[in-house]
Amino acid sequence: MKLVRLIVLIATLGASPALLALTGSANVGSACATLEFMAKMVTLNAMLPADYDDIGELYAMEESLAELNSLVCQPVILTEFTRGSSSYYNGQLVSIDLYYDPWFFNNGQLFVAAPGEDTVIYYPNGRIMAYSWMHGDQAIFWPNGNLATDYFRVFDETWYYPDGNIITYYAGYTGGRWFYPFQRLDGGIGQQVISSNWGVHNEDFTFLNFRANGSLFTTQERIRRKLVFDDIDLLDVPGVLLLVTRLYQAYDIAKEFAPADVNITGAPY
């Protein structure tokens, strides 16, 4: 009899509204963390496009992500009304239930079929960012469709720029070699190196300087403060790249993305 009561109690607790709400809140936090990562990918693709990328489309995608972010992820409190009634300015519903049902962008394109679950993640242009998002060892793609990496969140793995140039062969490795997305400025073979010991305090990195006429020259600077990274930091390759672009005062809309709900349980980073 005691065993039966225990089973009934467990079943009751498992189905309680409070526990279901906690699970749903974690799902929203995970989806918002996914949106934040996607914002990095879209912004970097817009800043560093491949030759035939549609820049207008990329900018429109940034605006779409920003609207979803402001509606669902920025509010400190997710009310019951917001959970099922969040609509874009054009009237498109985000989701009939943000806790458990599919999320859509303002153009009607599916973002995620089930927040917090292992599922395909789509960009607003319909291209796939990841086929199995919750599996960290899966391929990640840029908004233009090009491969970003074969294995996300894997140490010593190669990452590529949107145009196919190498970012690094050593994601998640402090002291690895990282590259700019252009050829060496001294005329040598290969890409220009950001640093051969990227992330290591007091090591050198190549800083790009621009004269008033737009011409470029480089200086060797020291890696300090915000440019010091550990191995875990360096697994977030898009996030690190945004810090590099910010060295040159490049504006990026991804700065505006930060989930108000810090619980990102289930997000693969």
Summarize the structure.
By secondary structure, this protein is of the alpha+beta class. The chain is 29% helix and 20% strand. The strands form 6 sheets. The chain has a two-stranded antiparallel ribbon. A two-stranded antiparallel ribbon has the order 3-4.
Describe how the helices and strands are arranged:
Layout: H1 2-14, H2 17-47, H3 55-73, H4 80-85, E1 103-104, E2 110-112, E3 121-122, E4 128-130, E5 140-141, E6 147-149, E7 157-160, E8 166-171, E9 176-183, E10 191-198, E11 204-210, E12 216-222, H5 237-246
Antiparallel strand pairs: 1-2, 3-4, 5-6, 7-8, 9-10, 11-12
Helix pairs in contact: 2-3, 2-5
Describe the structure.
This protein has 269 residues and is α+β, with helices and mostly antiparallel strands. It has a domain of 158 residues.
